[in-house]
Fold:
Amino acid sequence: MFAVPPNTLPNASESGLAHPVRVAREVAEDRRRWAHRVRYDRDTRWSLLLYSTDEYEVWVLSWLPGQRTELHDHGGSDGAFTVVSGVLTERAVRSDSGRHNAEALHVLVPGQSRVFGPHYAHQVHNEGPDPAISVHVYRPGRAVTPTT
Ligand SMILES: [Fe+2]
Structure:
């Protein structure tokens, strides 16, 4: 017999403790569930609250070439997003004492995800020539849409 470390979580498939990135990836792979609802808006990024639970919200976003977010964080929420199609570039900014002092660029292709914790600051941009779609999960859910 062996000891189970104290930080061991139960199998996520048997509980409501699925990590946001796991939810994002599962939703991203299950396109038949939501692809017919996707729209593109040439004036602003398009987003849809696909569903929410007591623990998290799941959003689908579309990005035409050149569309981007402003630099933003997610308050006290953590979460993840997964690229479904197209290519998205994330500029992640580390902020210490209210000053932005380091950043990293991540180019994400379909199937790739980014995970973030509370107060994680980033900007996401479709710099490619093709439209992009991504699935975003916020835990707990955001009070505002992710397009603001
Ligand atoms: Fe974000």
Residues 143-148 have pLDDT under 50 and may be disordered.
